[in-house]
Amino acid sequence: MKEGKSFKITKREGFTAYKCVRANKAVGGMDGIDFEKYEKNLGNNLYKIWNRMTSGCYFTKDVKGEEIPKQNGKIRLLGILTIEDRIAQMVVRNRIEPKIEPIFHNDSYGDRPNKSALDAIKSERENYFTIRWVIEFDIVGLFDNINHEKLLCAVKPHVSEKWIILYIERFLKVPIVMSDGSIIERESRIPQGGGLVQF
After folding, report:
1. Under a CB-based contact definition with an 8 Å cutoff, are residues 177 and 78 in contact?
2. C-beta of residue 103 within 8 angstroms of C-beta of residue 171
3. In this model, does residue 199 exceed pLDDT 80?
């Protein structure tokens, strides 16, 4: 860690985040840079992310919006981030996930580390013989209606690092650019498909 940096983020955290993003086989976003291009200058690219994040001047690029039809005829908005933005978000996610993860109920399986849909099915089979009722619920339009300020208020009690809150707020508010060039400014929407917003 160099002297004079505002935020204590290690280079190793950046490299670990890169490996997580690389394992997910993410595609490039608005800048059109895929992993093949990104990795031609990997060391320098990771250094730039680290340098900007530690000095407080990392800003996310616009999110590429893609509308995907759902089986019920409705549309799901996916947000496709640039590779460097995925890495930056993964740095934040890796830092806060160990703090927030213990809060969740043990039988919660959605996008949690070391848990999958198969684990949920296994739990359901085990519970079948002891529990006589099931409650199913779905929050309609959850990602389209999450209030950014309320989300930040829910996160702040569990996170002491100011830089994490700073970057979460920046990640949430970056505009979505659709394929037709239209821009969606965000106050309460979170597109599915990002790294951090799935915690």
Report:
1. no
2. no
3. no
